[in-house]
Amino acid sequence: MSTETITPRAEPSRWSKIVNSNMGYSFRRNPVAVVSLIIFALIAIAAFFAPFIAPYDPYDPAQINIMNSEYPPAWIDGALPEFVLGTDDQGRDLWSTILYGTRLSLIIGICAVALQAFLGITIGLLAGYIGGRLDNLLMRLADIQLSFSTLMVAIIFLAVTQAMFGSETFNQYAVFFLIAVIGVAEWPQYARTVRATVLAEKKKEYVDSARVLGFGPMRIMVRHILPNSLSPIFVISTVQVANAIISEASLSFLGLGMPPSQPSLGSLISSGFDYIFSGSWWITVIPGVVLVVLVLVINLLGDWMRDVLNPKLYKG
Amino acid sequence: MSLLSVRDLTVKFAMRDETVTALNGISFDVAKGERLGIVGESGAGKSITGFSLMNLISRPGYVDRGEILFDGEDVVKMSDKRLRELRGDKMAMIFQDPMVTLNPVLTIGQQMIETLLAHRKLSREEARQIAIVKLREVYIPSPEERLDQYPHELSGGMRQRIIIAIALLLDPQLIIADEPTTALDVTIQADIMELLLELCQSNKVGLILITHDLGVVSQMTERTLVMYAGRIIEAGRTREIINDPQHPYTQGLINALPQQTLPGQKLRQIPGNMPSLTNIPPGCPFNPRCEYATDLCRTRLPEIAQYGQVQVACHEVQRLQAEGERQEQKA
């Protein structure tokens, strides 16, 4: 073991710095944001630990009995006590399936946004910092991309891949296809925002002084301009996660997303839709409520963050 | 041989309708360890001169002709890689406003250490030690703690000291200071100037001080250039220029100083404004504001020429001198 001596510092810990910052203060003063974050954290933790919380594994065909299908939730007559939220059309426990489905929806949403952010930030930085013809080219590409609706691009792409690889292979890799298509379809949102901030930041004197100190363009972009452009990136990221979750749900609802054997919230809603008029409303409604609540709290958090990081109200 | 030698430097800006000449045939030298002042009104081309020495003129501006020899090597023709080696290492620059020159999201230490590591092969710990030494040189109290602070936690004067420390970090041979105290409190201005002078003298660093303050120039520099509308109109030893200005414009600048006026008197301003660079009058650019202007001044551009101790670009300088002597004899 190394005998490194860590000198104790009198300064506050990182955590208390965060709590006492302007953002922490405004967060504590905003009950909507607090409640939203608590609900989001609950959903995220439940989804993340789904394999430990869920009483059944909905992906394991051995645990599913078709005879259990369409039992209502526990508070309705005729329910079985072991299925708290009832069962779906294939006899899966709805509570377990929702947990696993939420996990899938969140993973797809977050990964798709990470892909969007990576593409958009890279392109936006290059376009804004280098400018000139490259800027024109990249921004026209963004305009073209934006003139196709995300859903349209996704439907065409997913339908073609489904036809190309066949249902089975497609179902196996559906998660990756969804992440790729949602990620690629929405990069212009990031690219435009980042470019606009870079254009403003680039004129500031600290960029000149970085050049004067002999730093190269890569370093100036990544180390100096990007960290100063983070606040708008944070704000759109939250909104984009909500959007990506909705896109995923819509695609799954249309049968182009997650297969019924590995349902996300969207495909669960879709599979229950066939039974809604035969009285089994819970298969659609309960995952629907979860989806709405999830998207709502993310959007509320995004609203709060936009207010806090608004440069007109707050100087970072 | 001089450290920096600028010859016939001409910088133009390609605007939408026309090309504007911001610097017109500037030539000057800076010897090793020499301190040079560049004085002039806003828009005279002082800052453009500073920027072009580092080859930092960006579109729509460009160097049209001329050369900037630094240690015998032409900065204008340098590759990007060579320029990066030069900037910060051999030549450093200090900007006007310390509030915006430091990167707001990096700590002082990160900014200093990164600068060192970008130019030298050092370990982080060695770089940190150098940064501490440099901060101590600019009289920053408890430099170890300052390294972990962000720029917004420090006052303007403190930040400008840190910027000076960063400029000195790699022991450059030349510092270009572009109005380094304009954004600061008057009381701090003097401190910063004194510090800059002390550091330049003790480290034998050359200094180009760009300012509009003749008082500062007279305290800080050995030689002075007076610029007007993108040209040098008077150049020479600072003492001679301040005590015995030859060009009517320089005379006007010195007479306009509040110290030259008795209490209750109006300040003696130079009438009119500097012409816009898109609309420079024919002949001597100063002629519309000059009380001694003749027909020759309105038609022919005066070349800069040695006159006594200084170089002056004025047709009438001999006549003016004779008149001045006559007035002195009368008095």
From TrEMBL, chain A:
<keyword id="KW-1003">Cell membrane</keyword>
<dbReference type="InterPro" id="IPR000515">
    <property type="entry name" value="MetI-like"/>
</dbReference>
<feature type="transmembrane region" description="Helical">
    <location>
        <begin position="32"/>
        <end position="54"/>
    </location>
</feature>
<comment type="similarity">
    <text>Belongs to the binding-protein-dependent transport system permease family.</text>
</comment>
<feature type="transmembrane region" description="Helical">
    <location>
        <begin position="281"/>
        <end position="302"/>
    </location>
</feature>
<dbReference type="InterPro" id="IPR025966">
    <property type="entry name" value="OppC_N"/>
</dbReference>
<dbReference type="InterPro" id="IPR050366">
    <property type="entry name" value="BP-dependent_transpt_permease"/>
</dbReference>
<dbReference type="Pfam" id="PF12911">
    <property type="entry name" value="OppC_N"/>
</dbReference>
<feature type="transmembrane region" description="Helical">
    <location>
        <begin position="170"/>
        <end position="187"/>
    </location>
</feature>
<keyword id="KW-0813">Transport</keyword>
<keyword id="KW-0472">Membrane</keyword>
<protein>
    <submittedName>
        <fullName>ABC transporter permease</fullName>
    </submittedName>
</protein>
<dbReference type="Pfam" id="PF00528">
    <property type="entry name" value="BPD_transp_1"/>
</dbReference>
<keyword id="KW-1133">Transmembrane helix</keyword>
<keyword id="KW-0812">Transmembrane</keyword>
<feature type="transmembrane region" description="Helical">
    <location>
        <begin position="225"/>
        <end position="246"/>
    </location>
</feature>
<feature type="domain" description="ABC transmembrane type-1">
    <location>
        <begin position="102"/>
        <end position="302"/>
    </location>
</feature>
<dbReference type="InterPro" id="IPR035906">
    <property type="entry name" value="MetI-like_sf"/>
</dbReference>
<feature type="transmembrane region" description="Helical">
    <location>
        <begin position="144"/>
        <end position="164"/>
    </location>
</feature>
<feature type="transmembrane region" description="Helical">
    <location>
        <begin position="104"/>
        <end position="132"/>
    </location>
</feature>
TrEMBL record, chain B:
<comment type="similarity">
    <text>Belongs to the ABC transporter superfamily.</text>
</comment>
<dbReference type="InterPro" id="IPR027417">
    <property type="entry name" value="P-loop_NTPase"/>
</dbReference>
<keyword id="KW-0813">Transport</keyword>
<dbReference type="Pfam" id="PF00005">
    <property type="entry name" value="ABC_tran"/>
</dbReference>
<feature type="domain" description="ABC transporter">
    <location>
        <begin position="6"/>
        <end position="254"/>
    </location>
</feature>
<dbReference type="InterPro" id="IPR003593">
    <property type="entry name" value="AAA+_ATPase"/>
</dbReference>
<dbReference type="InterPro" id="IPR013563">
    <property type="entry name" value="Oligopep_ABC_C"/>
</dbReference>
<dbReference type="InterPro" id="IPR050388">
    <property type="entry name" value="ABC_Ni/Peptide_Import"/>
</dbReference>
<dbReference type="InterPro" id="IPR017871">
    <property type="entry name" value="ABC_transporter-like_CS"/>
</dbReference>
<protein>
    <submittedName>
        <fullName>ABC transporter ATP-binding protein</fullName>
    </submittedName>
</protein>
<keyword id="KW-0547">Nucleotide-binding</keyword>
<dbReference type="GO" id="GO:0005524">
    <property type="term" value="F:ATP binding"/>
</dbReference>
<dbReference type="Pfam" id="PF08352">
    <property type="entry name" value="oligo_HPY"/>
</dbReference>
<dbReference type="InterPro" id="IPR003439">
    <property type="entry name" value="ABC_transporter-like_ATP-bd"/>
</dbReference>
<keyword id="KW-1003">Cell membrane</keyword>
<keyword id="KW-0472">Membrane</keyword>
<keyword id="KW-0067">ATP-binding</keyword>
